[in-house]
Specification:
The protein is mainly alpha-helical. Helices cover 79% and strands 0% of the residues. The chain contains 7 helices and no strands. The longest helix has 39 residues, at 67-105.
Length: 175
C-alpha cells in the first residue's frame, strides 16, 4: 500500500471517529482533539499550520466544518480534502437523519431530559476549544490579557459572539 493511500485511510479513520462527537455541537468543540491528533500525535501539521487553518476556517463565510477539508488538503492535497470531508460528514448525517426521525415519532420526557443533559458537555467542550486556541496564539502578556478580558466580559454580557471577536481584534490592532 502506498504512503499516500495509508495517509488517506488513517486520516479518514480520524475524521470518521471525530465526526461522531460533532453531532449537534459542530467542529468548534473538536478543536482540542483535532489539535492533539493532527499536531501532537501524528505530526501531520505544525502548531503554526493548525492555527493558520483554524483562522482561515473561522474567517471564511460558510459552514463551520470548513476546517476539516482544509486540514485534509494540507495533509494530502485535493484527495485529502475530499476524503476528510466525506469521512467527516457521512456518519453524522446518517445518525442525525435516523435519530431525528425516531425522536420526532417517539418524543417524551425522558428524551427531553437526555437532550438537556448534553448542554453542559457542549459548553465544556467550547471552553476547552477556547483554551487550546488561546494557548497556541497568546504567547505574550497583552494578547493573553485581551483574551481574558474579552472572555470575562462576554460571560457577563449576552450579545452575539461576532461583536466580541471584533472587539478583541480592534483592541489587538490598537495595542
Amino acid at each position: 500500500m502506498s504512503a499516500q493511500i495509508h495517509t488517506l485511510l488513517a486520516m479518514a479513520a480520524h475524521f470518521a471517529l471525530l465526526s461522531l462527537f460533532a453531532v449537534g455541537g459542530g467542529v468548534k468543540i473538536l478543536i482540542p482533539q483535532m489539535h492533539a491528533e493532527f499536531v501532537l500525535q501524528d505530526h501531520w501539521l505544525s502548531e503554526r499550520s493548525f492555527t493558520e487553518l483554524l483562522a482561515v476556517a473561522q474567517a471564511a463565510p460558510g459552514p463551520n466544518f470548513l476546517l476539516v477539508p482544509l486540514i485534509g488538503f494540507r495533509i494530502a492535497s485535493w484527495a485529502g480534502a475530499g476524503v476528510a470531508l466525506l469521512a467527516f460528514l457521512v456518519m453524522p448525517v446518517t445518525i442525525a437523519f435516523v435519530a431525528g426521525r425516531l425522536l420526532h415519532r417517539h418524543s417524551n420526557a425522558w428524551v427531553a431530559n437526555f437532550r438537556q443533559a448534553f448542554k453542559p458537555i457542549t459548553g465544556g467542550l467550547w471552553i476547552a476549544s477556547g483554551l487550546v486556541v488561546a494557548a497556541t496564539i497568546d504567547h505574550a502578556l497583552v494578547p493573553l490579557a485581551i483574551t481574558v478580558i474579552v472572555t470575562l466580559i462576554a460571560l457577563a454580557v449576552d450579545i452575539s459572539p461576532i461583536w466580541w471577536c471584533i472587539a478583541a481584534g480592534v483592541a489587538g490592532y490598537l495595542i
